[in-house]
Amino acid sequence: MAENGLISIPSPVSVRETMDRLVALLESKGLTIFARIDHGANADRVEMDLRPTELLIFGNPRAGTPLMQDRQTIGIDLPFKALAWEDEEGRVWLTYNDPAWLAQRHALSAGANAAVEAIRAGMNQIADAFKDR
């Protein structure tokens, strides 16, 4: 499912397990995990309700730096992010920005196409890993 520059794929496991699997997969590919934010736990701390929701911030300077060399404003969207969340029907989703949409949003030049394509291919591999489970 793609909407407003976001790609969402279903996950067959809980939000926490989705993030655990994503972290393991990204680390196995040599990517850096910069932060994991549990929005649900943060909501609990202020006595507010929120379905399970976790954000992962990750990346690789070899992939992101060429994009910022082309157009520094893309730095607002880097490092890359993925959100695992549970909808109102109890289904779990993994959502991330479409790299092509980010390229369009920041008006990257054709010179950045190879880097954008590499990121897209990597995210497709991650999506495929969740489909196979």
UniProtKB/TrEMBL annotation:
InterPro entries registered for this protein in UniProt: DUF302, TT1751-like_sf
SUPFAM superfamilies, sorted: TT1751-like
Short name of one Pfam family: DUF302
DUF302 domain sequence ranges: 37-99
Ranges in coiled-coil conformation: none
Record-given protein name: DUF302 domain-containing protein
